[in-house]
Design the sequence.
């Protein structure tokens, strides 16, 4: 009887592959030069901008009014 050789490669391994991470979308952003200069030295710009937008949405009524005027123009 012939012996079948088992390959020791392949197959799914626990913990292998890319980690799921946070669901997100890419977004192109044009900044005014003064904002660009302020962000130049920030190590994680994405995290900083996400935090700033969330903070503004939760805490600033004027920012919400500004967003409402932009939405009305579209």
Sequence:
């Amino acid at each position: 009887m012939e012996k079948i050789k088992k390959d020791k490669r392949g197959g799914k391994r626990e913990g292998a592959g890319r980690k799921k991470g946070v669901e997100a979308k890419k977004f192109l952003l044009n900044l005014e030069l003064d904002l660009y200069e302020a962000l130049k030295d920030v190590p994680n710009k994405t995290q900083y901008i996400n935090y700033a937008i969330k903070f503004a949405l939760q805490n600033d009524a004027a920012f919400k009014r500004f967003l409402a005027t932009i939405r009305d123009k579209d």
Summary: The two ends are 76 Å apart (CA to CA). Residues 43-73 form one domain. The CA atoms of residues 7 and 34 lie 60 Å apart. The helical segments are 33-39, 45-59, 61-73.
